[in-house]
Specification:
Number of domains: 2
Order of helices and strands: EEHEHEEEHEEHEHEHHEEEHHEEEEEHHE
CATH architecture of the largest domain: 2-Layer Sandwich
Shape: globular
Number of helices: 11
Strand content: 15-25%
Number of strands: 19
Largest sheet: 6 strands, mixed
Strand order of the largest sheet: 6-7-8-3-16-15
CATH superfamily of the largest domain: Nonribosomal peptide synthetase, condensation domain
Oligomer: single chain
Radius of gyration: 23 Å
Length: 506
């Protein structure tokens, strides 16, 4: 198979519906880029830049799956297909940048925001490696950018785990584009017989998927009527806050939370670590809105990626579901209890509904959000207020090509009809929270990050004063439906002018 003179292997990548959705829903204002930002403690050099030797080592590494794939033309116009390309040269995908000497991490954040908001050229390999020199203390910054249709957060974590070491001693060079071991990345032959078999298998599963979708919609309706339990219905109860017109401009912020403290709060509140993080972010978001004169009468709603199954591959094995957070006016402990109850409902639904149905449901609702934005129908209800994900991370201190890793942060997508993405990752004994937002909506994003650190302390204090319960009772018949009809957010005062300055990160 050949395209524009490029030689491809005779196998195509097995793409999930979610993989293709990330390509099909992409726009100039909503690039579907994901990445990782790493800061290394470099060594002082007599000549040249600290990153020179590191780049030479990385360029000795071959390109592996999924980064050895690119988009190919297909008989169906606009239908993305990934095929292996053995001609990709790493040197053509690596870019060097010089920051002013002694720059802090925020200076690199600003540069990364500009790069992250640019769509990848679909005629080229779907990844880039950017190396930054000039950070304080001979630090080296690495920003690896790729397309979300190629890999999900869990796949990215698996890539990083394969290229870091526990000690500084290392002989083999490593690079992000090495990807996953060949055996872990599944491909399917491009033979007609195999394709026909796949279509037949899909047809046999269609009945089960349709049945699961009916079951899911039935559960949603019963909850709305107040006569049953189920997940929250999208576009129904999301407060009309945190909105802005689509834009390619991004801003980043970051904070870290002690893992030991989060675990202690989770134990005290009969919750999971993820529940505690959602509660802290809920408290912080509501404080941020109140500071800007906005108050909600309904819980904020998080768009939360949920892993459907573990696997060694890189493709997207997730669905993205909506989780209402804490009740307005509730104490931090009450907010946590609300979130515990909602996340349990989501877990119960994921266990009872097939993966294909959850894929289709998630793609449909996000396609609707994309259509609302594309048609400039901003007055229609929102799907969610922010994306909040927790794809795990690294345990203990690690090294990359012999250099200590000081910081490792995910850089994710700001979804359609939304302005904010929050991604949590752990490194050693800390949980790192990375915020990325539309600059026009939240220019003072670091204030939200600072509020998150304070919110964890408040949550811990609230649980000490009045222990949280493990969830909340189901509302009486009709109560949820009545609550849904209450008006949305109100502006107490005109929103205060947000400061454009962000605090330096340390």
């Amino acid at each position: 198979m050949a395209l524009h003179g490029v030689r491809y292997a005779s196998a195509m990548s097995r793409m999930s519906p979610m993989d293709r959705a990330f390509f099909l829903l992409e726009t100039e204002q909503r690039p579907m880029n994901v990445g990782v930002l790493v800061v290394l403690k470099g060594r002082r050099t007599a000549r040249g830049r600290p990153g020179d030797e590191l780049v030479r080592r990385m360029l000795r590494c071959p390109v592996g799956p999924p980064f050895n794939q690119r988009l190919a033309e297909n008989v169906v116009a606009g239908w993305p297909v990934l095929v292996e390309d053995k001609s990709i040269t790493p040197a053509e995908q690596v870019f060097r940048h010089d920051l002013p000497a002694g720059s802090d991490v925020q200076a690199m954040f600003d540069r990364v925001c500009t790069l992250h908001a640019k769509r990848l050229d679909r005629c080229r390999p779907l990844w880039e490696m950017h190396v930054y020199d000039g950070l304080a203390g001979n630090g080296i910054g690495l920003y690896f950018k790729t397309h979300h249709g190629l890999i999900d957060g869990i796949g990215f974590i698996n890539v990083i785990v394969n290229i870091v070491t526990r000690t500084a001693s290392t002989r083999s060079p490593q690079a992000f584009w090495r990807g996953l071991p060949q055996a872990a990345h599944t491909t399917e032959p491009s033979r007609q017989g195999s394709l026909a078999a796949g279509l037949l298998q899909s047809g046999l599963a269609a009945g089960r998927t349709a049945g699961d979708l009916v079951k899911l919609i039935w559960h949603l309706g019963r909850r709305d009527l107040g006569i049953g339990r189920g997940m929250a219905t999208p576009f129904v109860a999301t407060p009309d806050v945190l909105k802005a017109a689509p834009s390619p401009n991004r801003v980043m912020a970051h904070c870290s939370l002690p893992l030991a403290r989060v675990r202690a709060v989770a134990k005290r509140g009969n919750a999971t670590i993820n529940d505690v993080l959602l509660a802290a972010l809920d408290i912080a978001l509501n404080r941020y809105l109140a500071e800007h004169g906005l108050h909600t009468r309904r819980p904020l709603v998080a768009d939360m990626p949920v892993a459907l199954h573990e696997g060694p591959g890189a493709g997207n094995r997730i669905t993205i579901l909506q989780v209402p957070m804490g009740r307005p006016g509730g104490t931090p402990a009450e907010r946590l209890a609300d979130i515990v109850a909602e996340t349990r409902l989501v877990k119960e639904e994921v266990k009872s509904i097939g993966a294909d149905a959850l894929f289709m449901y998630s793609i449909f609702e996000h396609a609707v959000a994309s259509a609302i934005e594309s048609l400039n129908l901003g007055d229609l209800p929102m799907l969610a207020n922010a994306v909040i994900s927790n794809p795990a991370g690294l345990e203990g201190r690690v090294y990359f090509n012999g250099l200590p890793v000081a910081l490792a942060l995910p850089v994710s997508v700001v979804a359609h009809h939304q302005v904010l993405n929050i991604t949590i990752s752990n490194y050693d004994d800390e949980l790192h929270v990375t915020f990325i937002a539309l600059r026009e909506a939240i220019p003072d994003l670091q204030r939200l990050a600072d509020a998150t650190m304070l919110a964890l302390v408040e949550l811990q204090h609230s649980l000490t004063q009045r222990p949280a319960t493990a969830g909340k009772k189901a509302p009486p018949v009709g109560e949820h439906a009545a609550r849904k009809r209450r008006p949305g957010p109100t502006k107490a005062t005109k929103a205060t002018k947000a400061s454009t300055a962000t605090r330096h990160l340390h």
